[in-house]
Write a structure and sequence with these properties.
53% helix, DUF6361
Length: 388
């Protein structure tokens, strides 16, 4: 459970000012199927392999559970275990990887019928079927998983020497699943154009320079939205830091100077990223509604519009100390968090950890970049047959 809490506590998952619906919709549009809980690409094979082994046994649910827990120790003993869910908890992990990755398996049609639950798969996979239920490559049996999926390596799941390292065949297959299921997306673009291992944001990666069409429009909007809202995030943390220090709390002292410097740096760089006078925010919000299949909350849309309008009237260099921007952010926290708001609440301020959603939005990029580089590392790997 500690592993899951740690992932949820990531700065990208925090939503102190209530823009999560827009953030998540942009993340879904750019990188469909992903989330901040997804860490490594090979989980998309580990889980189907375990379920295939467990299906048809007398107690498939308990066997699948046991094998998932055994896999944790096998990967921990391997050459590549970074991103392992359960690294600390081991076999005592409460939320297993299959629960976390099921949505991703559905999205990329690794699970052939997205409506199937884990229990459905364990009960039905491999059963003999007839008539119209027979599919090519199924061998006359119901196949819950893609019939083109590479097979599990020898000894799995008791031993996984390579850990999360994909073979060339596995990487090529996962790349093709993404290209087939989410063509034209930024995610698909990066499966063909390798991202850098340390790029801080998708728009900052050299491979993004060649993005065109709808993906380019979405990426530009995401960059603009991140830049504009980062000022609100930093100002919020500056207000917290000031009140924290004024309240006599000591463990996070000195933060106000840091956040003031960061607001000043944001004010200097924003005009080079986006012209708030011409940025078509309405177009962004329309795209977000389409991705979500429902309108975002009116308060969220109003907050973003009102903040944009403030930046049109007030020079960015004045944002840190302008009474109107300060009251605007304080009011938004009260509206978004109610009695859990920290500003003006010494009891809540006392537990402040020095940062509350202060990082610029990058739409899951660290996780997505890691999964993409897993795939590209596998594609670059020499096939075992060639090594032999």
């Amino acid at each position: 459970m500690r592993d899951i809490i740690r992932l949820f506590a990531d700065r990208e998952s925090r939503d102190e000012l209530g823009v999560g619906q827009i953030r998540d919709a942009l993340g879904d549009a750019l990188f469909p199927g992903t989330s901040t809980l997804h860490t490594r690409a090979r989980y998309l094979l580990f889980i189907p392999w375990i379920f295939q082994k467990a299906s048809g046994r007398p107690n498939p649910s308990s066997d699948a559970d046991r094998m998932e827990r055994k896999l944790i120790n096998a990967i921990r003993d391997s050459d590549d275990y970074a991103g392992l869910l359960g690294l600390q908890a081991g076999a005592n992990l409460k939320t297993l990887p299959s629960s976390i990755y099921w949505s991703m398996l559905r999205r990329f049609r690794i699970l052939r019928d997205p409506a199937l639950t884990a229990q459905n798969v364990l009960t039905l996979d491999g059963r003999a079927v007839g008539g119209d239920d027979i599919d090519e490559g199924s061998g006359g049996r119901f196949r819950a998983w893609s019939t083109t999926m590479p097979g599990a390596p020898n000894g799995f799941p008791d031993a996984v020497p390579g850990g999360f390292m994909l073979s060339r065949e596995e990487a090529g297959w996962l790349r093709d699943r993404i290209l087939d299921e989410v063509p034209g997306t930024l995610l698909a673009h990066f499966t063909v154009n390798r991202p850098a291992p340390d790029s801080p944001a998708p728009w900052a990666d050299a491979a993004a320079l060649s993005v065109t069409g709808e993906s380019r429009a979405l990426l530009d909007h995401a960059h603009s939205f991140s830049a504009v809202m980062h000022g609100a995030q930093l100002l919020y943390n500056l207000l917290l830091a000031e009140q924290y220090e004024q309240g006599g709390f000591q463990s996070e002292s000195g933060r106000s100077d840091r956040y003031r410097s960061e607001v000043d740096r944001w004010a200097e760089t924003l005009p080079a990223i986006v012209d708030v006078a011409t940025w078509d925010l309405d177009d962004l919000l329309r795209r977000v509604d389409i991705v979500r299949g429902a309108p975002i909350h009116p308060r969220s849309a109003r907050f973003v519009r009102d903040w944009r309008d403030l930046l049109r009237r007030i020079p960015t260099s004045d944002v840190a100390d302008h009474p109107e921007t300060r009251e605007f952010i304080a009011a938004r926290e009260r509206q978004n968090k109610g009695p859990q708001a920290r500003l003006g609440n010494p009891r809540r301020l006392q537990t402040w950890g020095g940062g509350s959603g202060a990082g610029a939005l990058v739409f899951r990029w660290p996780n997505v970049r890691g999964i993409l580089n897993d795939i590209h590392d596998g594609l670059d790997r020499v096939p075992e047959a060639d090594v032999a």
